[in-house]
Amino acid sequence: MSRRIAPGAVLWLLVGVVYFVTPLVATLIFSLRSDQTGKCCSLGSYGQVIDDPEFWQGLRLSFVLSLETIVLSLVLLVPTVYWVHLKLPRLRPVIGFLALIPFVVPPIVLVVGLLGFLKGTPDWFYARPYGFLVAAYVILAFPYVYFSLDSGFRAIDIHTLTEASQSLGATWRTTLFRVILPNIRVAALAGAFLTLAIVMGEFTIASLGAFDTFPIYIQYINETKAYQPAALTLLSFAITWGAMLALLLVGRGRSVPAGGAR
Amino acid sequence: MAYVELQELRREFGDVVALDGVSLSLEEGEFLSLLGPSGCGKTTALRLVAGFDRPDAGRIVVDGKDMTRVPPNRRDMGMVFQAYSLFPNMTAERNIGFGLKIRGVGGEKRSRKIAELLELVGLERAAKRYPHQLSGGMQQRVALARALAIEPRVLLLDEPLSALDAKVRVQLREEIRRIQTQLGITTIYVTHDQEEALSISDRVSVLSQGQIEQIGTPSEIYGAPSTPFVAEFVGTMNRLEATVLDGERGEIDHGGVRLTVDAARGRRHGERVLVLVRPELLELSTNGSGGENTLTGEVLTHTFLGPVTRLKVISPATELIADVSTARAEALPVGVRVVARVPSTGTRLLTLGSEEPSQDGR
Questions:
Q1: ipTM here
Q2: Least Cα separation, residue A199 to chain B (angstroms)
């Protein structure tokens, strides 16, 4: 028996579609205009963006920064959150509060503070995006990675799993890598994806630090070109969606429900 | 010489004394249960033996070696937990093989061992299944196989059946005992279920408030409880408060009724005692208004327990519990006046206050 869909629901769905899709369609139509004639339809703007070496440089830099931030955040936070859940559960609210600070401190304040705080550090760190920017991005990503991991650790019985692993002869390292990590993989991936999204779109810190990341390139194109910014917008949209799809595929591939009985 | 020794173990959590000088020993291949209510310290004791926690005082010795400070991953003790503890990311066979892999047992040898253990716990067909594809009973079987895979010196079981339904619980406890006997592995089993402890153990240690109340064979614990706590906790017990009238003849006074129990022999005149009588030892009848060694009363309730029915009888001095065959119970309906005969032998006697047990009359 088929269920009848309420007219009200259809209306709200249409409103949602119009709200979210209209800007995308408008951007797409705009991006297809010819640079010379201003008329539809040409893929010229896309070609110009893709042919621009600075596009690839910015994209590559932001992507590498994202990966570096993800790795550093996970290396710092996975053992920390594991230990807090296992041995120091009373610290959880404290760390939860600390994790909220990057949400409430505006990036402009953060970067000004960091520029001053890290001024004395060596040039290879302070003047390079892979040093200074990553340090700032790890702070920015802290709440996203922490809360993702926290929910992942709460979903499994880490006390019992840890003790079971140890009783079978495993060291702390073996327990972390073979037992705990595989069971919080989806949570870690969620944190990683959010970090990727933040770093790929972060403008303020990169701009004040004078680093040419992808968002800086987008801003430059926006100020100097007519139709290319629209093409670039859709391309970055596609990149973001591609990353989200990759996460879904990886997460679904070997996802195993934790605990419980059939 | 004892194979496993717990020597004067003490463990405090803040103001709470979880274990207060617990000492016990196990022979090699023995199955010992730690039995007691929640918070009695039984799981704390097991966790100390496993190495997940350290005692504030005392020692744990296994095969003559002090293990008190040895980390859990170097103790060679297999453990089955109360909570489902299989690694969710591994199939049943990979769970079982985990400890072997860590010990560097590889290839054919590991596969053979896994197959043997799966057969031992009757789960040959579940080898490739993940924990979430197994029932609770199957998960605990795999957990047992996983603990046995490493051929541990001691097997520790922390209420492994408490999350399972009644029928599976009985089946699995019998299997645990069969496997333990077959492998001859020294086992410590923690439970709050007295029926479980009495049915599968060589010896039972009853704990209360961080101390051992009594250690003995299941029949000793059931038939000859040495403290009121054990008497109360293990099975059901009638408690008759009484005063010794004649220590030579074993006569006591219970609420104005003169009773003779062998256990009262040798007690001094006027001593306040507690007579403990199992419900199955009380004989109920409707004949006569009393007689020697009897208490009169009225049937208050019937509780059907299958082959026997438990009757609550209210007498002037106390409330009695008596188990009679279900067929016989039909002749003793609620409201009828009955006579309960207290056996002169088979009862236990404790001094009120000091709680010193007397010699059993049996």
A1: 0.82
A2: 31
